[in-house]
């Protein structure tokens, strides 16, 4: 992932790239990330995240959603990315979330051509938990009418 970010925005690439095989992939990712954004430089962090948002796209069904990724860590202190998608206007039922981004045509050859590819398809079902207040009010009226008649 770092290579694709550096290819897209050459200014983010550190002078000395310290990524490589170590005992923990998390350490490698954090090291590469810290080198790229500069631990004290919020402008680099902003550029880093802008670049991530440029090279990865999110679609639900065939509709493009604007991503606004942030960097986060999980309970095991593993770094990753999160974003919020407003799905309140989706129809009820099954949908497919698709994330597209760069990958190598031949994953075993780092010199192979970079291509855009679907990285993951995630099926999900959307059913709003709350109905609108106007519907709730109408439902109460109907229920009260039924109980009093």
Backbone shape: globular
Enumerate the strands of the largest sheet in spatial order, edge to edge or round the barrel: 2-1-5-6
DSSP E strands, number: 6
Helix content: 25-40%
| Tally of helical runs | 4
Radius of gyration: 22 Å
Structural class label:
alpha+beta
Catalogue the unreliable spans: 21-28, 136-149
The biggest sheet, with number of strands, parallel, antiparallel or mixed sense and barrel status, is: 4 strands, antiparallel
Strand content: 25-35%
How much is the average pLDDT? 77
- The rounded distance between the terminal residues' Cα atoms is 66 Å
Can you write the helix and strand succession as a string? Answer: HHHEEEEEEH
List keywords for this structure.
single chain, 149 residues, alpha+beta, four-stranded antiparallel beta sheet, two-stranded antiparallel ribbon, 6 strands, globular, disordered C terminus
Model description:
It is a single chain. This protein has 149 residues and is of the alpha+beta class. The protein is built from four helices and six strands. The chain has a four-stranded antiparallel beta sheet. Strands 3-4 form a two-stranded antiparallel sheet.
């Amino acid at each position: 992932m770092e290579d694709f970010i550096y290819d897209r925005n050459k200014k983010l690439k550190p002078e000395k790239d310290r990524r490589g095989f170590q005992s923990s992939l998390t350490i490698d990712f954090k090291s590469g990330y810290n080198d790229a954004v500069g631990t004290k430089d919020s402008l680099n962090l902003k550029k880093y995240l802008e670049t991530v948002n440029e090279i990865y796209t999110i679609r639900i069904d065939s509709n493009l959603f604007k991503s606004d990724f942030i960097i986060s860590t999980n309970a095991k202190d593993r770094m990753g990315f999160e974003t919020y998608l407003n799905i309140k206007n989706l129809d009820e039922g099954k949908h497919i979330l698709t994330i597209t981004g760069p990958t190598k045509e031949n994953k075993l050859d780092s010199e192979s051509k970079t291509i855009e590819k679907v990285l993951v398809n995630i099926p999900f079902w959307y059913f709003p938990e709350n109905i609108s207040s106007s519907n709730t009010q109408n439902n109460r009226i109907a229920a009260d009418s039924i109980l009093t008649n």
